[in-house]
Amino acid sequence: MNTQQRLSIIAMTLMLSGSMAALAETETTYGIRPADDASASPSSHPNAADEQSLKHSSMIKNSGDIRYVSGGVGESERSELNALSSQFNLHLLFATQGSGEYLSAVQVNILDTNHGSILSAESKGPWFYAQLPPGDYTVQVTPTESRGHGQTQEKTVHLDRSGQAKFDFYWNK
After folding, report:
1. What is the pTM of this model?
2. Angle, vertex CA 75, rays to CA 72 and CA 77, nearest 5
3. CA dist 10 to 36, 83, 88, 108, Å?
4. Cβ(31)–Cβ(83) under 8 Å?
5. Which residue has the higher pLDDT, 31 or 122?
6. Following DSSP, what letter does each residue of 107-148 receive, concatenated?
7. Which domain holds residue 117?
8. Among the residues of the chain, which ranges form H helices?
9. Which residues, listed in sequence order, are joined to residue 129 by a DSSP beta bridge?
10. Cβ-count burial of 146 within 10 angstroms (0-12 exposed, 13-18 middle, 19+ buried)?
């Protein structure tokens, strides 16, 4: 191998390693991020369009061992949540009776059989998903905005290892 060939190989190696370094620095932005990525703020992402979409997107959160996510404001959030729905065994929907208008800002409390709170969170949209261990639970939901404000509804749910439970809650206009 002559000097020219060696230089060509070295130049190609440097170019490839530079490409690999650039590849390693690439980050992918998703509208719904895992809870362990909660420290990454939307402003740390360079793309302004991504930054704007993240301000309105939902984020998977943890409360103890319970994972949950809420949202569904707008078509893109509903699509994101639909894609994640199989990861959660409890699905809640909040809407107005008759009109079907969605409600957001609903306080969700999930109690175990001893009436101990295992999850207390405010839904940021009409859809609320949670992943609970198998068992029996009481789900209490209370809108915090004007429509249905203070009107708590309660349902009992039994979750086994294989299924999902879906509940729709409706309030009068």
Report:
1. 0.68
2. 40
3. 40, 45, 51, 61
4. no
5. 122
6. EEEEE-TTS-EEEEEEESSSEEEEE--SEEEEEEEEE-SSTT
7. 60-171
8. 3-24, 48-56, 75-84
9. 69, 91
10. exposed
